[in-house]
């Protein structure tokens, strides 16, 4: 068979598409106008499908009949499939289970024929025809439609895995994802059975993940597996608003667990769990699974907790992921930690430690402010250090930008935690002034500690040399203008004494030429 769309092939496939639409319009119009009886309509559709299949086999044996036979066969099976959908949805001749079974058998027959003929166009034609026309008969994106399309996907899986037909993999996976997403939206807008929708959508998503995994194992070079994996969990994650909060959190957590297991297979040594699994499952696929698992876990966290605890939870998870990245030597895990830290920090700045708490005498941020401030500073230090250990921050200018942001967040986090801690005991202007004195002093002490440690570690010495001018700038620009007389005196005296002592200590350390802890 030649390649490309010849006029004869184009005419045959256009004719098949028009025929399918004609069958759909006939079935719908027959119901609206009362033409014939339901039995006559179903039998007529079955007869038309059988005639088209017989014509496909007859044409195939003739010269130049290959293209026409493909179009006739695909159209015939699609007509039979649509006839089954109509018998189930419109006329109630078949129960839902019976209709799904019959539809699976018919679609499987078409795909089996494509396998025997080694003809991907037949398989694609069967799947596309059924997937496009079934919603026109069904009328609404409900569980029945998702079930039919999921079984269509299931029927196509063995053939596409056997031959590595990428087009078939794409057209089989996409319709069920779209239908499941529309079913979620439809259930939110109507008074449908939400539990049934969640169960069907969850099953369809699990099927998509399994098929994507099998494709990745058997066809490591097939990038459609990654695309299918990314799309598969979307419907079930969008279905969480349909159930109560504990079940919604469990649903998202379940997705996270499944995807984490897939991601974790990359760390299983060869010969363990599954033979040579580490070599057979592509790294890109497991990386995508890990990223999706992080998103699902983030959603589970935000569903299960009140918004007041989001920043704390996300920053704690960022620290855990950072430790996990160091333990597993995985830069991808560190990227997940950075994502959690970014979102957690944004939420902290919005809710727990907003900037105005540092410049206005107002309500205390409470214990949560102390905890979130400390966590912000710890995360800002831990992630860049882990990046250095893993060798992903050795290239400027990205490393330089991250270190600058890290330094700003460390200063902000420590300042917010200090102010929140002081406000717990003295929530007035005196507490506000005391807090700023301690903030300035703590920044100076930290800068000196970095300078002393930086005698042997140049990066820490640079950090200390940057932090010290920042602390002095705050002392002369903010504290001098804001603090009252006595607080101003205390701030300057303590800062000066600390700097004097540090200068003596630093000079002695340099003369000894020995590291100082």
Brief rundown of the structure:
The chain is an all-alpha fold and 517 residues long.
Radius of gyration: 33 Å
- What's the main sheet like? none
Residue-averaged pLDDT, rounded? 80
Helical stretch count?
21
Helix and strand element order: HHHHHHHHHHHHHHHHHHHHH
CA-based shape: elongated
Description of the molecule:
- By secondary structure, this protein is mainly α.
- Among the domains are: 8-139, no CATH class; 428-517.
- 81% of the residues lie in helices and 0% in strands.
- It has 21 helices and no strands.
- Helix 3 packs antiparallel against helix 4 (96-117) and helix 4 (96-117) packs antiparallel against helix 5.
- The model has no long low-confidence stretch (mean pLDDT 80).
List keywords for this structure.
517 residues, mainly alpha, elongated, transmembrane, transmembrane helix, membrane, DUF2339_TM
How are the SSEs placed, and which strands pair?
Layout (H helix, E strand, L loop, with lengths): L6 H27 L4 H23 L5 H24 L6 H22 L2 H19 L4 H21 L2 H24 L4 H25 L5 H8 L2 H5 L6 H20 L12 H4 L2 H22 L5 H19 L2 H22 L3 H4 L6 H25 L7 H28 L3 H25 L4 H25 L2 H28 L5
Pfam families: DUF2339
Keywords: Membrane, Transmembrane, Transmembrane helix
InterPro entries: DUF2339_TM
């Amino acid at each position: 068979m030649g390649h490309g769309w010849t006029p004869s092939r184009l005419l045959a496939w256009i004719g098949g598409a028009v025929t399918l639409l004609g069958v759909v319009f006939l079935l719908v119009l027959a119901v609206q106008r009362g033409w014939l009886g339901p039995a006559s309509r179903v039998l007529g559709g079955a007869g038309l499908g059988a005639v088209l299949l017989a014509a496909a086999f007859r044409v195939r044996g003739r010269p130049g009949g290959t293209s026409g036979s493909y179009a006739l066969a695909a159209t015939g099976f699609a007509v039979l499939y649509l006839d089954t959908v109509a018998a189930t949805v419109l006329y109630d001749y078949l129960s839902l289970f019976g209709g799904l079974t019959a539809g699976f058998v018919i679609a499987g027959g078409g795909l089996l024929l494509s396998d025997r003929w080694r003809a991907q166009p037949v398989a694609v034609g069967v799947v596309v025809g059924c997937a496009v026309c079934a919603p026109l008969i069904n009328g609404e994106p409900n569980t029945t439609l998702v079930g039919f399309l999921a079984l269509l996907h299931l029927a196509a899986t063995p053939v596409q895995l056997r031959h590595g037909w990428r087009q078939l993999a794409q057209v089989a996976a996409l319709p069920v994802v779209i239908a499941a997403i529309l079913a979620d939206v439809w259930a939110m807008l109507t008074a449908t059975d939400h539990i049934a929708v969640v169960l069907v959508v969850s099953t369809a998503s699990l099927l998509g993940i399994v098929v994507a995994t099998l494709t990745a194992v058997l066809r490591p070079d097939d990038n459609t597996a990654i695309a299918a994996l990314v799309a598969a969990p979307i419907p079930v994650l969008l279905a969480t608003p349909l159930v109560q909060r504990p079940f919604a959190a469990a649903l998202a957590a379940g997705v996270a667990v499944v995807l984490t297991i897939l991601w974790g297979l990359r760390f299983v040594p060869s010969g363990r769990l599954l033979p040579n699994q580490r070599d057979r499952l592509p790294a890109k696929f497991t990386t995508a699974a890990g990223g999706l698992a992080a998103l699902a876990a983030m959603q589970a966290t935000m569903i299960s907790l009140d918004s007041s605890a989001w920043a704390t939870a996300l920053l704690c998870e960022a620290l855990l992921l950072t430790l996990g990245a160091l333990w597993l030597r995985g830069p991808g895990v560190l990227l997940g930690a950075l994502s959690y830290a970014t979102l957690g920090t944004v939420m902290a700045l919005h809710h727990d430690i907003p900037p105005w708490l540092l410049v206005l005498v107002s309500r205390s941020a409470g214990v949560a402010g102390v905890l979130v401030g400390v966590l912000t500073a710890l995360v800002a230090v831990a992630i860049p250090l882990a990046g250095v250990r893993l060798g992903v921050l050795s290239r400027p200018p990205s490393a330089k930008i991250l270190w600058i942001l890290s330094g700003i967040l460390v200063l902000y986090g420590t300042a917010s935690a200090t102010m929140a801690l002081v406000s717990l005991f003295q929530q007035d202007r005196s507490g506000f002034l005391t807090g700023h004195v301690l903030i300035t002093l703590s920044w100076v002490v930290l800068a000196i500690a970095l300078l002393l440690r930086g005698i042997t570690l140049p990066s820490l010495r640079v950090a200390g040399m940057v932090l010290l001018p920042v602390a002095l700038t705050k002392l002369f620009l903010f504290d001098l203008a804001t603090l009252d007389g006595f607080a101003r005196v205390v701030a300057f005296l303590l800062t000066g004494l600390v700097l004097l002592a540090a200068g003596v200590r630093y000079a002695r350390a340099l003369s000894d030429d020995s590291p100082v802890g």
